[in-house]
Design a protein that fits this description.
By secondary structure, the chain is mainly β. Helices cover about 5% and strands about 40% of the residues. The protein has one helix spanning about 10-25; strands at about 40, 45-50, 50-55, 70-75, 80, 85-90, 100-105, 110-115, 115-120, 120-125, 130-135, 135-140, 145, 155, 160, 165-170, 175-185, 190-195, 200-205, 210-215, 225, 230, 235-240, 260-265, 275, 290, 300, 305, 310-315, 325, 330, 335. The strands form four sheets. It has a 15-stranded parallel beta sheet that branches. It is elongated, with a radius of gyration of 24 Å.
């Protein structure tokens, strides 16, 4: 039996086509979404690459692939809404390098409202500037919301049942603001301020998280006020760099302690903001209401109410509280004991 050979012209044409296809695939970013999103759309795997208002309808499940972004936003001046109640959409799994909504560094002034990404490596990632999340709920992801871009605002945006951290604010996310949000049932940290400065966290509730409700991890010059942080695994609020909590040793590098923060209660109906542990017997009790690790200084703690924590309602590992100031607080137990000095725990 004989076989007809392929002509040189046919071979070269086929090879060129194959090589061209391979190069195109190789040069496509792994996180890039295919095609532009229509102004009204319902499928994962598209990019919002032009300014304007976009609406999701009857959203479908993210294709079961191991990498990529469900909704990729590269354009500035974008609003992404839904046409009904809060809309959930699912990813291929928390152990995948996938992102539900990715606001890219090129995207300035993006508003996202009413979405619930779940089952992604990251539910929402903000790398662009001046982003606003409004009624966005991140649930069942590895990390719920990760903020890297400056001037981001999270308003009434919640995070629950994520594996490692609910909301993570990183060093580059300057002038971050978070208002009226609830963060609960994370496997690890509720809200992590990771080496960030200038953040304002206002009127938040962090409950039933695996380690800390609010963790200031090498974070300085931030304000936390009007909070409630109960029933977390280690502490309601922790200032320090040890992922296991206070241990009597300086845990932060010398250039990144948590200094100059203000943790404030705001009085509503004669009730202070709390860092307590009023829970039922089925949950692990919170060890500390507020804990300050050794070497974290020049912080102010005012008008906070803490009680019912298993070790101490307030702990400051600096001798005589160092340069930290505690004033107008109500704690049942503390270390140092209350009224050690005028501005130590009282």
């Amino acid at each position: 039996m004989t076989m007809k050979g392929v002509g040189k012209k046919e071979l070269s044409t086929g090879m060129v086509a194959a090589v061209t296809t391979m190069l195109a695939l190789a040069l496509t970013p792994t996180g890039a979404a295919a095609g532009a999103c229509a102004k009204t759309f319902k499928k994962c795997g598209c990019t919002i690459s032009a300014p304007g208002s976009y609406t999701l309808v009857n959203f479908s499940t993210f294709p079961l692939k191991s990498t990529g972004t469900c909704i990729d936003i590269t354009a500035s001046n974008v609003t992404l809404n839904i046409n009904g109640p809060n809309l959930g959409f699912s990813g291929p799994g928390t152990n995948t390098p996938t992102v539900g909504i990715d606001i890219e560094p090129s995207a300035n002034n993006v508003t996202v409202a009413g979405l619930t990404p779940n089952g992604f490596g990251v539910g929402v990632r903000i790398d662009g500037s001046n982003a606003l999340l409004y009624y966005v709920n991140a649930s069942g992801n590895q990390r719920g919301i990760v903020v890297n871009g400056k001037n981001a605002i999270l308003f009434a945006s919640n995070s629950f049942n994520n594996e490692t951290v609910g909301i993570q604010i990183n060093k580059t996310a300057t002038n971050f603001v978070m208002v009226a949000s609830t963060v609960y049932l994370q496997g690890g940290v509720g809200i992590e301020l990771n080496q960030v400065s200038g953040a304002a966290v206002v009127s938040v509730v962090t409950e039933l998280n695996g380690t800390f409700g609010i963790w200031l991890n090498g974070a300085s010059n931030n304000v936390i006020t009007g909070f409630e942080s109960d029933n977390n695994g280690i502490a309601g609020v922790y200032l320090g760099c040890n992922a296991a909590g206070p241990n009597g040793q300086a845990s932060c590098p010398s250039d990144t302690p948590s200094n100059g923060n203000a943790v404030l209660g705001v009085q509503f109906n004669n009730s202070y903001s709390t860092a307590d542990n009023s829970i039922g017997p089925s949950f692990t009790q919170q060890s500390y209401g507020i804990a300050v690790g050794l070497g974290n200084l020049h912080n102010d703690f005012l008008t906070i109410d803490g009680d019912g924590n298993t070790v101490d309602d307030a702990l400051d590992e600096n001798p005589n509280c160092g340069s930290n100031r505690w004033l107008g607080n109500i704690f049942t137990t503390s270390d140092p004991a209350q009224n050690t000095t005028d501005y130590c725990i009282n």
